[in-house]
Structure formats: C-alpha cells, structure tokens
Design goal:
The protein is of the alpha/beta class. The chain has 16 helices and twelve strands. Helix 1 (about 10-20) packs across helix 6 and helix 12 packs parallel to helix 13.
Length: about 425
C-alpha cells in the first residue's frame, strides 16, 4: 500500500509521516511546499511521477492523507481568501485527483466548524455553524472533499499539540519559566489532542481493509464530569505546570490567573464549547482514544527525555556560529565553513532530540530528514556545500591551501546563509525553554 502525506513540515504531518514509516506494509510519499496542492496540474504531475516510479514507488497511490492547512486562526480574519485557497481549494483538488485514481483521502478538519454553543459533545452529523474565517474555510474544505470523492474520511480534531511545532504546551512552559504570573482563559472548554495519538488513529484508518467512509471526530478523551464538560484552557495550563514541575522542567511555581474570553479578546471568535464525541471513530476503526492527562504526561516525558542534551547542544550551536563569525573577521575562511556546519548540525540535533536520542550520524541532509525539516532548493545546496568543505578538510591538512579556495566574499555568503538557516531552525518553540 502506498500513502501520500501532505503538509509533512507541520506538527501533525511530521507525526503522521513518522508513524506511517514504521508500518512495514506501507510505502510513504511525502510533500510540503514543493507540491502546490491547490493546482490540479501540479497534483496530477506528482501522481503521475509516483506511478511511473519517479518517486521510487512505481505503483498507484492508495491513500492521500492531507495534513496541509492554513492554521493561523487570527490571521485568517484578514486573509480569508488565502486561507480559503489552502483550506478549501487544496483539499478539493486532492480529493478529485484521488477519486480519478480510485484512491481514498483522509482530510483533517477542526472543531471551529461549530459555533461552540452546545452543552454536550458534538457528534459528526451535528450541523456546522462556523463563526470565524478559519472555521468557514475549513468547512468549505470538508464540503469540497465530500463532493469530489466518496472515498473520504474526514477527521475533525481540536486543541492539537506535539513536538513538531508551536503549540499551547510549549507556550505555557516558556511563559511559566520566564514570568511570575500569567492569565489563561477559563470559559472556553474542550479536550486536548496529542498529535502522536491522532497520527496513530490516521494509521488505523488507512490500514483498515474495508473502511467506513464519512466524517469522524478525534481528540483525546476525558473521564467523569469532564467527559461531557471538557476542560478549560486554564485547567490545561494548571496540568502543564504540575507536570513541568514534577519532571524538572520548571524550577518554580508561576501564578496562573483565570480569565474570561472578554478579558482576552482575539480577532477570531473561539468556540466556547468544543468537546467532540469520539465514539464513532472508535467503533468504525477500532481506534484507541487515550485519556488527555496520560497523553500530556507522555508528551512531556518523551519530548524532554533527553533534556540534558538539549541545552548543551543549543548552547554549543550558538558558540559555533559566533566562532564562525570570528573566523570570518580573521580571514580564516575554511574555518568559517567548518564552524558554520557544526552550528547547523547541532541545531538539527536539538529537533531530533525532542523525539529520540540524537544520532551519531554527521550527514546534514540526513539529519534534516530525521528532524522532519522541510528543505527548499537553496537549503539543500547549503547543506551539500557545508558537507563538501567538511569532507575536504578531513582528508587535506593544508588549511591555508583550502582557505585560498574560499575567498572572503564566498565565506561571507556561506556564513550568512548558515546563520539564516540556523535562525529558521531556532524558531521552534523548544529553543525558548533552555
């Protein structure tokens, strides 16, 4: 079976890719911005290349898992057309192309398609009524997928977090580490979703022999009173702090103040209640829905399992880049290449250490792949160039001769490109925690 995963640079897409790659009978194709999913021509070309063996597959794609989306909720209020293109046009194009090949599609949607006025968990067949641009564009995407392909599984989720990008957990840990007190909204209720759990559910869907097509809900679950009432963002923040203190990520207690939605206004209206009923996906695909507290504990303990490595790697990467700049001023140009490469390597290994122990390999392209980092062509060329200078230096000890092959203009450009690449990596929220 062959599965094409889109949006693999994102938090969910990277987890889906990682989880699917561990399934022996599945061949995985992946894409991010290098394939324009809003263009039927581009999608058809990618599909044709896969079938012809151009992507080392040489077989028909059986499933598309669409994780690509415009997720900047507030920005969508001002840029609804752009959000619509990615959230509605793109899914429709993917679904139509999949239908023309007899393939299925898993499309990820959101609790924002509802108005948030319910008092019991939303079921998949409840009437949508979005109150934000983001919600409207995601609902349009659902409609487009249903019209284009009967072989669809639409999964709505909410409050997603994971190691692959910015999310509420990382934000809370950073604020709790740097502030004496914070305010968190207490009158919006839902249930968090760990990206690893959702990825596992998606794998269950695509590996089911006779899937039941339709719309489903998946979040983590809650027990007791919370099972219907959900938890608030305030409750979530309190749980994050308790675990952060217990696991040694936080060395002090930060005051957490409960706020109302009115006290914390945002451009986009948030659903006041967005608890989703997950019973149907459990029945249809035998999906296990873990408790939200257990999943939060798993995330914090696994993401920071090697936390002793993270500060050292991050600090060393900064030092290497500073050294590279010093070597540039000293006209030791080959050392600019060496130290720039070391800075890139160590920053990449921080991202890898959020999911697993850092590997011993030194191939920068392999490390970027292992870190689920999307590379455009300039980034690929940079990693190859840095690796090339490194290999030359290992087998040729005449540094002055090597330096003569790298002039000041070239070394300056190499340093600036490396610095820009490192800054891109360090935008990951984990770097703000140490």
């Amino acid at each position: 079976m062959t599965v094409w995963v889109t949006g693999v640079a994102g938090m969910l897409g990277s987890e889906v890719l990682r989880t699917l790659c561990s399934v022996p009978e599945v061949t995985v194709l992946s894409s991010d911005r290098e394939v324009d999913i809003t263009s039927r021509k581009a999608v058809a070309a990618f599909w044709s290349k896969a079938e012809s063996g151009g992507n080392a597959v040489g077989d028909s794609i059986d499933w598309v898992v669409n994780c690509a989306a415009w997720t900047a909720v507030d920005a969508a209020e001002e840029k609804e057309d752009a959000a619509y293109t990615l959230n509605a046009v793109g899914p429709g194009v993917l679904a139509a192309e999949a239908a023309s090949h007899g393939a299925g599609i898993v499309h990820i949607s959101t609790d924002y398609v509802f108005d948030g006025t319910a008092s019991s968990p939303y079921r998949p067949n409840d009437e949508p009524n979005p109150h934000s641009a983001y919600g409207r564009t995601k609902l349009a995407g659902e409609i487009g997928v249903r019209k284009a392909n009967t072989r669809h599984v639409i999964i709505r989720t909410a409050w997603l977090y994971g190691a692959g990008g910015p999310n509420f957990v990382f934000t809370m840990l950073r604020l709790m580490k740097t502030r004496e007190e914070i305010g968190v909204v207490a009158d919006q209720r839902g249930v968090p979703t760990y990206a690893v759990d959702l990825a596992s559910a998606i794998v269950s869907v695509v590996t089911t022999e006779e899937p039941t097509w339709g719309t489903y809900h998946f979040t983590n679950t809650a027990s007791g009173f919370e099972s219907h009432a959900g938890i608030s963002w305030y409750d979530f923040a309190v749980a994050i702090q308790e675990l952060g203190r217990r696991e040694g990520l936080l060395d002090r207690t930060c005051g957490i103040n409960a706020l109302t939605t009115e006290q914390y206004p945002t451009p986009a209206r948030r659903p006041g209640y967005s608890v989703l009923d997950t019973a149907e996906i459990s029945r249809a695909f035998r999906v296990t829905v873990p408790d939200w507290q257990k999943s939060l504990h798993q995330f914090i303990t696994s993401a920071f399992r090697y936390r002793d490595d993270l500060p050292n790697l991050a600090a060393a990467a900064v030092y290497d880049l500073e050294t590279s700049e010093a070597m540039l001023k000293a006209a030791r140009y080959i050392y600019v290449a060496y130290t720039s490469r070391q800075a890139v390597e160590k920053n990449l290994k921080v991202l890898i250490a959020l999911r697993e122990r850092t590997p011993r390999i030194h191939d920068l392209t392999a490390l970027a792949h292992r870190a689920h980092l999307w590379l455009d062509e300039p980034a690929k060329r940079l990693l190859v160039e840095l690796s090339d200078y490194y290999l030359k230096g290992r087998y040729q000890w005449d540094v002055d001769d090597l330096s003569s092959r790298l002039n000041r203009e070239q070394a300056t450009a190499l340093f600036e490109r490396s610095k820009e690449f490192c800054n891109r990596i360090r935008k990951h929220p984990a770097f703000s925690l140490f």
